[in-house]
Every structure is written in C-alpha cells, then in structure tokens.
Structure of GPN-loop GTPase:
Amino acid sequence: MATPAQAATPTPTQTSPADKGKQKESPRATAMIVIGMAGSGKTTFMQRVNSYLHSREQPAYVLNLDPAVIHLPFDANIDIRDTVDYAEVMKQYNLGPNGGIMTALNLFTTKFDQVLSHVENRANEVDYVLLDTPGQIEIFTWSASGSIITDALASALPTVVVYIIDTPRTTAPATFMSNMLYACSILYKTRLPFLLVFNKTDVQPHDFALDWMRDFEAFQEALLERRQTHGEEDGPAYMDSLMNSMSLVLDEFYKHLRAVGVSAMTGEGMEELFDAVQEAREEYEKDYKPELEKIIAERKRKEEAKKADSISRLMRDMKVSPSGQSAAVPQSALDAAQQGADEQDDEDEDDDDGEVIDRSARTDYYQLPERRRGTGPGGAVEGEDGTLWPAP
Ligand SMILES: Nc1nc2c(ncn2[C@@H]2O[C@H](COP(=O)(O)OP(=O)(O)OP(=O)(O)O)[C@@H](O)[C@H]2O)c(=O)[nH]1
C-alpha cells in the first residue's frame, strides 16, 4: 500500500470511538487528478470534461494546480495562481521554468490543508472534483508535493488518477513504452485507482495501443517492423531486446489498468470515460479505503501510546507515582500542562499566513500583485538582467 499515512493534512475519515469498526461513508464526489506529459491535452481535457458535466447539469468543483498556465479555458474554483506567483518564484529562487513550477507547487502544497477544507466543504454538493496539474509529471513520481496532494485527497474522498496520453505521439513502440513506464511509476507511487486515457483519438484511434497492452507479442512484432522500416531512428538495436523484456514485465501491470480513448477536441468517448471513472471509484471503496482506514487507526494508536508515554515520563520527572497517590504535583497541574500542549497543537494547525481562495465562495478577493505575464516574443518572461525565459 502507498503512504496515505504521510498525508500532511488532517484526516477527515477518522472514526470516533462510537463508530469504530464501521466504515465511514465516502462523500458524494469523486476526485479526478489529471496527470500527463506536457502537451498531452490535459487542459483541453479538463475543459471538455467540465463542459460535458455542465451539459449533464452536474457542475464539478475545479482546481487548477498549474502555476504557469497563461490562459485557462475554464473557470477554476481554486487556482494556484491566486496564491503563488510563479514568475516571482523563478526570480527569487533563481530558477528556470521547470524548477519554478516545481517550487511554486511545493510552496502551494504547504497550504494544501486549506485546499482540502474547501474541497471537503463541497464534496457532498458536487459529483466530481477535477484537478489540472502541470506537465512536469516527475511531481507525481518523486516529488514530495505530489504524494501530499494525492494522499491528502484520497484520505478525504474517492480519488482516481486520470493519466492522459497523446495517442498520435505514442504510435512508435519506444515512445509507447516510455509513456507506460511513467504511468507505471505513478501507479505504484500513488497506489490509487488508475485510468489510462488515450487522448486525441480524432487524429489517431487508440486500438493499436489496446492491442499492444492485451498481447505483448503484438507489441514485439510492431517493434520488429518499426526497426525494419525506421532503422536506428528510435535508438540503437540493443534497445529492442530491452523493450521486448519490458513488454513482458508490463504485461502484469496492464492487467490492473482501465484504458479508454477520448478526443478532448470533439468530445468523443466521454460516456466510456465516466463509466470507467465509476468503476475506479468502486475499486477505491473496495481496495484503497479499507487499507487507508487501517493506516489511520494504526497512526491514532501510535499517537495515543506516544502521548501516554510522555505523560508517564513527565510524572516520573516530577517524582509523581503513576497512580498519582503521592502527588507532588496536583492532577490539575498535569491537566493544565496537557491542555497547554493541545492548544499549541491547535495554534500550529491554525497558522494562517497564506490564503487559498475558493473563488466560488467569495467575492472580496485579495489584492494580488500583478502577475508577470511575458512581454517578450511569444510571451517570454523577461528577467531583471534582460534574460528572456521561454513562455511556459
Ligand atoms: N486534435 C486534437 N488536439 C488536441 C486534443 N486535446 C488537446 N489537443 C491539442 O493539444 C495541444 C496541447 O493541449 P493542452 O490542453 O494545452 O495540453 P496540456 O497537457 O495541458 O499542456 P501543458 O499545459 O503544456 O502540460 C493543444 O494544441 C490542443 O489544442 C484532441 O483531443 N485532439
């Protein structure tokens, strides 16, 4: 199981002693975290899904986590750009565009408890919570912020990872394999129900990819054929034996995946997509949630044990017997000390020096410094020394 226990946020699925043993009912909403390589069509997909849900009168709660997006073609309820100024982050930390995006997201993640509480407030009013993410998918393979986001969301509501693939750019076996390896590492990192979405099917149908996933021999034949027609274009010949072996390894991984084809441009495939999301939600309820609840119960047990241990050490230090009979310090003093520690915990939790804005819930927006939108050619961002950073 992944590490939902590491979520840096309060865990709303915690059970009170009264309902211990019972599984808490999940909120109505399903969260869809949209991940994919740059240019795979995540933002267009978000726009399509959003308008499809509006047409079914099921408006979603929408979050934009891409700090560098210039034009967002849909209304986001929470937008990272309202909280973190990506160009300012690049400048202050002396970073390039990639580092700027990663750091901006890391900074935003420190406020993810606020995001989560906005999401939780709406989780029984909407059917879907949609999250658009930056194209830097390493965020979800090794960065801490990726785990915090996925674990925190999954601890609050049924969550599905929607991995977008640019189908026309995946027709070469080597590119297909590389994309699948990324998907595989995100799946094993998050352990969440996972859905492969082959996008841009208006340009290239995805049947070839389904064939390669169902039958590794079909993939190996395609690899051989490609070598005969394209020579060394996709890499040296010894790569083929590596890819042949990888196709055998991934065969097991494909068995745990759902895959659908869509066109974010035309809207084709939306019904199949939502059927697959529903199946993924059932998988969350069946497999992920019971594991998560076990982890939460175990964490709670450890916290209680730690608390009891600190109190008994405190009593020893004050030369108080565990029964409290020869108390040199009255019980009221111990209670006061415990209360002080609890209040400090509460204060730490309420530390509120940065704001995450739910745009749909308020009209009195904070006055934010004007964001640097590139003024150079093609929207490039000009640094202080005159360097032009490429438009993100
Ligand atoms: N033909 C076609 N083009 C698409 C489709 N989906 C997206 N595109 C195009 O693909 C390009 C990239 O789309 P985006 O939605 O910006 O991709 P993204 O993954 O959000 O990109 P980053 O924000 O850079 O990570 C745009 O030119 C889109 O118009 C589709 O289903 N069919």
